[in-house]
Design brief:
With 308 residues, this protein is an alpha/beta fold. It contains nine helices and 13 strands. Helix 5 packs parallel to helix 7.
């Protein structure tokens, strides 16, 4: 029999895609989201849905006691927004994780897979960043992710974990109305709406853009492979792309669009891309969707959904 899995952030971009995969694989899925950022219409069919705030301990304590796997993707997920209310960011991203850890220990959950972020690294040299380097996050959001990873390590003897340091995820289903989260979706939404893309920061900044299907595959394998336990993985492609190169591809695909630079984003990293050796060698994820192919698919989807 397949396990029962608890998936938080099930109404969000990444969480909903991962939940769909687990449903398709035959798992019983309990999905949780407070819908402060996620959307009810994103939640896949065939799951039990609970609308709860994870930062409230009593809410988490009342979750089903027979879940054997936790996939924790809920939280405030914007570095920029984290500065608006740092205490709220702490509650959404750290307190919620501690509540889930305590729930997992009480109910003898086999594994928790945690949505961490490349933001834990801070500024790094211009080379593929490895998981074991010294962490010095620049943003409030990054500090919260760093702290949550620390709590997972403290409790790993009682609740094994996998931490997924996700880089720049993009693809169909991303929220095109949120212009403060998701570099690709922000630029794409502006290009389609007005043809004018406002870029906050240098065009020479660089990132590692990973397509949503590759993220889902990585999560599924990390959640089900014994070799992944108590490991940290970079969830990226290992490919370095400058902001300028990304914008050129978007503008080439959307004729008449253009971009301009204005201001910057607090706590923004200058450049980062992933070393993917652990992802490839331990959970055997080594094939990634090219940015060109991924953007074409995303833009096609976005054109039909921008006004929905």
């Amino acid at each position: 029999m397949k396990q029962k899995v608890l998936i938080t952030g099930v109404g969000g971009f990444i969480g909903s895609h991962i939940a769909k995969r687990f449903v398709e694989e035959g798992y019983t899925v309990v999905g949780v989201d407070d819908l402060s950022m996620g959307r009810k219409e994103n939640i896949p069919e065939g799951i039990e849905f609970l609308q709860k705030d994870l930062s409230v301990a009593d809410n988490v304590a009342a979750f089903p006691q027979d879940c054997t796997l936790i996939l924790h993707l809920a939280g405030q997920s914007s570095g920029e927004i984290s500065y608006d209310d740092p205490v709220a960011d702490l509650e959404k991203n750290v307190v919620s994780t501690l509540n889930l850890i305590q729930y997992g220990i009480r109910n003898q959950v086999e594994r928790i897979v945690y949505a961490s972020s490349m933001s834990v690294y801070g500024n790094v040299p211009d080379e593929p960043v490895k998981e074991h380097v010294f962490l010095k996050p620049l943003s409030v959001y990054g500090v919260g992710k760093f702290a949550s990873e620390g709590y997972l390590r403290v409790y790993q003897a009682k609740l094994p974990f996998v931490a997924m340091r996700m880089f720049n995820v993009y693809g169909p289903g991303q929220d095109l109305s949120n212009l403060r989260q998701g570099m690709v979706s922000i630029y794409l939404a502006q290009a389609l709406a007005t043809g004018r893309i406002c870029v906050k920061g240098s065009l020479n900044r660089y990132r590692d853009f990973i397509y949503i299907d590759d993220v889902v595959e990585s999560w599924f394998r990390a959640a089900t492979e014994a070799s992944a336990l108590n490991r940290i993985f970079n969830i990226g492609t290992g490919q370095k792309t400058t902001v300028g190169e990304l914008l050129k591809q978007i503008c080439d695909n959307i004729p008449g669009s253009e971009f301009y630079v204005e201001g910057s984003t607090p706590g923004d990293q200058n450049g980062i891309y992933a070393n993917t050796e652990n992802l490839q060698e331990i959970v055997d994820v080594s094939s990634f969707t090219s940015l060109g192919k991924g953007l074409t698919t995303f833009i096609s989807w976005a054109k039909s959904n921008i006004n929905k």
